[in-house]
Amino acid sequence: QVQLVESGGGLVQAGDSLRLSCAASGRTFSSYAMAWFRQAPGKEREFVANINRFGDTTSYADSVKGRFTISRGFAKNTVYLQMNSLKPEDTAVYYCTMSGYWGKGTLVTVSS
User: Are 100 and 35 contacting, i.e. CB atoms less than 8 angstroms apart?
Assistant: First the structure.
């Protein structure tokens, strides 16, 4: 049974930083690419960033490029999303996904 557990969300002000974590279990972590998506209130879920199984190739949505960084820690079976220079429009529930499985999400709220 695959389990993905996100953490690290919270309420911050515009310009602040947060680091989200997603702990994975139930599958061989290093065998799968992983990704972060987000869903803002009243909007559809959208892609944020992904990282390949080796951790050396990443891609980002244009809206977060240059501000967010995805990485993975193989020792802890965890994928991270470092979010800097946060904007109110980054407010959303952030989800991680691996091999078709999804976590329950963590809420990020950015106040202006």
Answer: no
